[in-house]
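Long-time lurker, first post. I've been practising inverse folding by hand and with some scripts of my own, and I keep getting stuck on stretches where the structure tokens seem ambiguous. Below is the full token string for one chain I'm working on. Before anyone asks, I'm not after the true native sequence, just a reasonable design that respects the backbone. If someone could post their per-position residues I'd love to compare against what I wrote down in my notebook.
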């Protein structure tokens, strides 16, 4: 019976020692490594990394411009019309050929690297910045 109690106590002490060493590992590595600005230090078990979350950047579409209409060989001013024909915003201009009034619609354009994000209301240009993980190799003197 006494032998069983001793074994139980030893097993408990060993488990507590293992658990406490597992808990302190991330804190231990955090004191010796740091990340570049914009990154957060993350640990999982014995592994560590510097992580920057992904995000979306937004810009307004390029301004509507005048377009030359070949039929009348004149420049027609275009103006932003939200949800033109029910969905996407367009640059719309009207011109007259004789008694007929015509409408010209041109798609919106975005700055380089951005794609048009069509949604109800004002459309916008969107650029996705991907998440990035790099090794935590910048040592610190803490």
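-- Answer (accepted) --
I ran through it position by position. Result:
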């Amino acid at each position: 019976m006494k032998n069983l109690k001793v074994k139980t106590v030893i097993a408990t002490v060993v488990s507590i020692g293992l658990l406490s060493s597992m808990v302190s590992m991330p804190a231990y590595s955090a004191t010796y490594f740091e990340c570049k600005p914009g990154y957060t230090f993350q640990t999982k078990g014995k592994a560590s990394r510097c992580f920057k979350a992904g995000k979306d950047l937004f810009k307004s579409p390029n301004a509507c411009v005048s377009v030359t209409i070949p039929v009348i060989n004149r420049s027609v001013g275009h103006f932003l019309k939200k949800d033109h024909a029910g969905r996407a915003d367009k640059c719309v201009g009207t011109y007259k050929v004789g008694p007929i009034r015509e409408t010209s619609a041109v798609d919106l354009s975005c700055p380089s690297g951005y794609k048009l994000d069509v949604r109800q209301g004002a459309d916008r240009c969107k650029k996705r910045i991907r998440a990035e993980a790099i090794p935590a190799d910048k040592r610190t003197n803490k």
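A couple of notes from the structure itself: Residues 2-30 form the longest helix (29 residues). Confidence is low (pLDDT under 50) at residues 4-25. Happy to go over any region you disagree with.
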